[in-house]
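hiii so um. not sure if this is the right channel but i have a protein structure encoded as tokens and i wanna go backwards to a sequence. like what aa goes where. can anyone help
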């Protein structure tokens, strides 16, 4: 029993010390989304939906919940954001080629339509990110229109 008590105290000590360390936060400015918003021109409702359901993981600006102050949860969240930004980063939209923009809009409407996005692990703690069928349709329709616009630009070249 003594050994379990020592292990417990050691783990508690490690947990407490770990709270003083954490990953770098993704706290950029929402103005980094200006190019994406300007080019794709989402309706106000779609913009609102994306702000609450997409931008935290797919831009350089994340709104962190209170539990992000707890290690190891903060590392798990940081990895989520890192992976999300690697797949699609709306803040770097101006750096994407026309072909890549067209492809990303195609992926966006497919993932939302299949209800793969937003991730369940995100909506568990962000209930406002749970999309209704109407919201899914709004995003899909807008994204298909933006994709068609990029496709037309590609064909015009």
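sure thing!! here u go:
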């Amino acid at each position: 029993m003594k050994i379990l008590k020592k292990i417990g105290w050691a783990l508690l000590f490690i947990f407490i010390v770990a709270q003083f360390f954490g990953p770098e936060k993704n706290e950029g400015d929402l103005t980094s989304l200006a190019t994406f918003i300007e080019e794709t021109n989402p309706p106000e409702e779609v913009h609102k939906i994306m702000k609450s359901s997409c931008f935290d993981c797919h831009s350089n600006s994340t709104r962190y919940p209170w539990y992000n102050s707890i290690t190891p949860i903060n590392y798990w969240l940081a990895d989520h954001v890192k992976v999300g930004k690697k797949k699609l980063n709306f803040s770097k939209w101006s750096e994407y080629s026309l072909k890549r923009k067209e492809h990303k809009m195609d992926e966006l409407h497919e993932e939302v339509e299949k209800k793969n996005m937003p991730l369940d692990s995100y909506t568990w703690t962000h209930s406002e990110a749970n999309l209704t069928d109407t919201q899914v349709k709004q995003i899909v329709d807008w994204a298909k229109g933006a994709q068609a616009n990029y496709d037309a630009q590609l064909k015009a070249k």
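oh and The chain has a mean pLDDT of 87.
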